[in-house]
Transposase IS4-like domain-containing protein (hydrothermal vent metagenome), 259 residues
Amino acid sequence: ELIIKQDGQDKNDCERNAAKRLFEKMKKDHPKLKLIITEDGLSPNAPHIKNILEYGWHYILGVKEGDHKFLFNHVADSQKKGNVIEFEIIEGKITHKFRYFNQVPLNASNQDVLVNFLEYWEISSGKTQHFSWVTDFTITKENAYKLMRGGRGRWKIENETFNTLKNQGYNLEHNYGLGKNNLSVVFATIMMLAFLVDQTQQLCCQLFQSVWKKLGSKRSLWEKIRALFFSLRIESMEMIYKTLLHGYHKPVPVILDTS
């Protein structure tokens, strides 16, 4: 679904409204599906969190100190009182440092919305990465590492999706969201459908996986596929993949001399 102005609406659409529609549809289509919602720092607001919990789901949402000063100040004050738990896990040359506190008010305006706060530092080769989240899961020393992995898992989805679409042959650009008469919307929709098919093959098709591994990159794979489309009579995608995997005899062109 595209985030665009909906029928009968005067205001522009936004991620928050689109999320409401998505949640409603997901619950209707998959009423028994258990979900953990992971999102970035724009998402942790009281209505959104309440919406997630109403559907019986869980959440791990990124938070930033600049956007949630009340939350971070509350944790800092609690730490001075000795109520915040800190610990480290050392894996080889990597140090995982955690700080957590359960049942923290989300913000000054919604102190009835209590969240569990997790802060994390990864220290490796002199470099430090810092992340923080709120979640409805009760945080313990035993599950903090797993919750951290769940929160950071969003980056795998986001990076692999957008990096692939922008830099690995699909050529998606920000200006695909602009334009008139819905042409850019059509381009973006077709591209996402193609990406969906490619992801399915990447997960489930051994032939696709073998060709991708042989050629080394998706960009190279797309270029080879296009070349075969232009130069040979192709009967199926299976033929293309087998041709790229096993090789083929290049035909000698027959020149049509009409003189």
Notes: The radius of gyration is 25 Å.
